[in-house]
Amino acid sequence: MLSLVLALILSVTANSNKPLVQNPGFESSSFLSGWEIEAHSEKQNGRAPTFLADRNDRKEGGQSLVIEAPDPSRAAVSQKIFLPVGSLWQAKAWVKTEGLSSGDQTRADEFFRDQPPTGAFIDIETLAGNVGTSAGSLGTTPWHEEATTFRVPSPGFINLTLVGTYLGTGKVWFDGVRLEPLPTATREDVRIFAEHTTKRPIDAMQQGQFIEILCNLIPSIIAQQVVSTSFEEAPPYNVAYKKEIDEPYRPWYPDGAVEVAQYSLDTTNPFNGGRSERIELPVEHARAGISQDGFYLKEGVSYKLRLHMRSEGNVRVRASLHSGGRVIAGPVLLGRAADKWTAAEADLRATRTSDNATLTIDFEGPGTLWLDRVYLIGSDAVLGLWRPDVVAALKAMHPGVIRFGGSTVENYEWRDGIGPWDQRQPFTTVWGGLEENFVGDDEFIQLCQHVGAEPLICVRWKNRNPEDAAAEVEYCNGSVETRWGKLRAHNGHPQPYGVKYWQIGNEVDAPEYNTSVRAFAEAMKRADPTIKLISSFPTKGLLAAAGTAFDYLAPHHYEIGDLTAEDRDFTRLQDWIAHEGGGKDIRVAVTEWNTTGGAWGLPRGILQTLGNALSVSRYLNLLQRNADLVEIANRSNFADSFGSGFVLSGPGWIYKSPAYYAQQLYARAAGTYPLRMERSSPLAWQLREPDLSASLRSDGKTLLIYAVNSTLEAVSTTIHLDGFRASVRGGTVHTLDDREHAMTSEVMNSRDDPGRISLRTRQAEISGSQFNFSFQPLTVTLLELTLGK
Q: β-strands 501-504, 702-709: how paired?
């Protein structure tokens, strides 16, 4: 019987005048019609590859495509094709080569890890990574068929790419390109054995989170609501998702008797940063000031306003919060501004709720008022800073570890992020925008302690020395008798934090790192011998030079849809550790991972879809199967971050992405041991549906079976338990799915419908050592089963 998806494919192709692959034999008068050229020379001023129609040498039809690269190049053609999500295909093409070289294998390895391709191959590229690559060829070969089998990931399109040369040289012919649908089974037998496949259990730190100082990430999760606290000029963001709304636009603007007041940004003698707001009001009894919109106020909550002011004329300053033509809080008198900078603060208690209130600060003339470092935080803020709804969402994920660092760290000075908020200077992040600098090591560590997670701090390597890194360790972990521990105590935190996990540098891959990092490690260990050290990008050269200095190697995985590549990377790292690790028990910490690290612009919306939750879950299954090697994994990022955040927030609202619920579900596996499975499906492991992972609690009383069905069809599975001391006696079924069952992976949660994709729980009507279960289309399912006699 044909599957539903295969029937759909045949129906679509039968009723369409356009074939799936346009111009598959390059027979068009414009021989590359439908194909896009990719040509990148690896040699400076090198000769560009050529793309020609060859009527003399072809496999079928009247002509073929010949690609020639006289100098090392990537030369390819591709076309974008839409296919049903979850469907199974084979891509084929006739290929011939002449004098094809493999190019620089070291350079290729940077992109394809330990299996760099040669040339003359088919590559199936998607937003989530490559999902199929044929074998490729070398040297001179006659016409032969290249083929690769793949399953279509969300959002349902592929780039079918014919790679002539990859960093190499030579001539390659292509002809007769085709896509053939393959039938998929809708039932399977799975045998689960009571045999641990790892010596170690799945660690809670596999469900790690990541918070970094980038653009609107920190502002989206803290309760401080003022934008431009120090009136600095904010540079634009360097990257974008929804460009029109990525950057919150909440300017300060003149208010009151603006017709007689004079406004300017004064760079002379600012309190904080490079400038302050100056308002000159020469008219007696008139009032003028500045306002900012967009504040969320909750009835009954007090909001502490703190600012710095000075004046000529000893003017009286007041503040109020208002919305909809009514005052919600205040006005309150902040006192008289003196001729020198002084701090002023007041509590403004909201008498009703508003999601778009206005803060106004004004004074009565005549006189001149300067304002600087203005901020507003509600009394319901967790630890005096963090949004309570965001903290609740983070805590509910049960993150074992949270990383602080990332892209900004190599240009960030941690010393500038400690001490009173009044004194901290705003700065520009590596991705643009202005960071108001309310979150440093102290605030981050206290948040981790509050939610029960281990803090992981990434220290700066670029343009720093070992003593700088050791000072940060001592600040966090040193006693009050040490120089930096004493400063921590002075800043209000006398007890050492005991931060255990430290990463040296972010995404650094340079020979200088390999030769210098051991000195960093030794200095940091002198400050605290109990800490665990994590590398930057791992390379074989790093292990040879300084491998034993580390407790963890830290790859970053940003194409998790390509599970075979990530699995090969784990195998490669395991091999390096065995041969270059000096016998030390070095493990892996994937300190950043996601479906994509780029896909800038609107394609980045994939990160908010149900399809992304399915992709995330398949990667989490892979992590579980590698529990002996992978102890830590930090998904990038927890919030905002141009659509990649697990949580999205705005004034008074928050919602969670589908991927949030996936990782929350997988946190339930902490402490369980992965089990061996046998499956009846003949497909390669990465193509099987559903993707499965099974584990057992150490007491043998709870069996967890995770299943990810990324297809549009239900899969009926017969599960056999083998070697267990007891059989199933009920349990719980947790399902992540679309409430509307719209049969598309492109659905999302939103502010207006935050729970469309979420977890739904019911009792499991399952018993015995053999049972049937139907995994529904486009779902993540956890069978949390009780074992008993």
A: unpaired
Identity at 90, one-letter amino acid code: Q
Q: How far is CA 432 from CA 223, 247, 408, 714, in A?
A: 22, 10, 10, 45
DSSP state, residue 626: T
pTM exceeds 0.90: yes
DSSP structure class, residue 436: -
Amino acid in the structure at residue 124: I
Q: What gap in Å lies between CA 713 and CA 701, rounded to an integer?
A: 32
Closest C-alpha among 748, 750, 752, 787 to residue 771:
787
Beta bridge partners of 149: 90
In 3D space, the residue among 146, 128, 126 whose CA is nearest the CA of residue 136 turns out to be 146
Domain boundaries of the chain, sorted by first residue = 4-184, 186-201+671-789, 204-219+384-608+629-670, 250-378
Contacts of range 477-486, beta carbons closer than 8 Å, 24 or more positions apart: 477/527, 477/528, 477/531, 478/527, 478/528
For 254-305, write each residue's pLDDT tens digit: 999 999 999 999 999 999 999 999 999 999 999 999 999 999 999 999 999 9
Q: Which amino acid is at 49?
A: P
CATH number for region 204-219+384-608+629-670: 3.20.20.80
Question: Could you give the 3-state DSSP secondary structure of residue 780?
Answer: strand
CA-closest candidate to residue 125, choices 162, 94, 164: 162
- The third-level CATH classification (topology) of the domain covering 4-184 is Jelly Rolls (2.60.120)
**Please, is 788 exposed, middle or buried when counting C-beta atoms within 10 Å of its C-beta (0-12, 13-18, 19+)?**
exposed
End-to-end CA distance of the chain: 40
Secondary element (H or E) of residue 422 = none
Same fold, 4-184 and 250-378: yes
- The total number of residues shown for the chain amounts to 789
- Number of neighbouring beta carbons within 10 Å of residue 742: 12
Cα 309 vs. chain centroid, distance in angstroms? 40
Instruction: State how far the alpha carbon of 622 is from the alpha carbons of 349, 563, 564, 734, in Å.
Output: 50, 8, 10, 20
pLDDT in tens, 728-760: 999 999 999 999 999 999 999 999 999 999 999
HEC secondary structure over 206-249? HHEEEEECCCCCCCCCECCCCCCCCCCCCCCECCCCCHHHHCCC
Q: Are 70 and 47 in contact (CB under 8 A)?
A: yes
Beta carbons within 10 angstroms of residue 30's beta carbon: 10
Assign domain 250-378 to a CATH class. mainly beta
CA distance 289 to 252: 10
Give alpha helix (H) positions in 699-775.
none
The C-alpha atoms of residue 375 and residue 423 are separated, in whole angstroms, by: 13
**Architecture of domain 186-201+671-789 in CATH?**
Sandwich (2.60)
Residue 755: closest CA among 659, 656, 666, 662: 656
Interhelix angle 388-396/441-451, nearest 10 degrees: 60
Virtual torsion, Cα 622, 627, 628, 630, nearest 10 deg: 70
Strand partners, 552: 534, 587
Q: Which residues contact 644 (CB under 8 A, 6 or more apart)?
A: 594, 604, 607, 636, 637
Low-confidence ranges of the chain (pLDDT < 50): 1-2, 14-15, 107-114
Identity (one letter) of the amino acid at 200?
A: R
| Beta partners for residue 307, in sequence order | 344
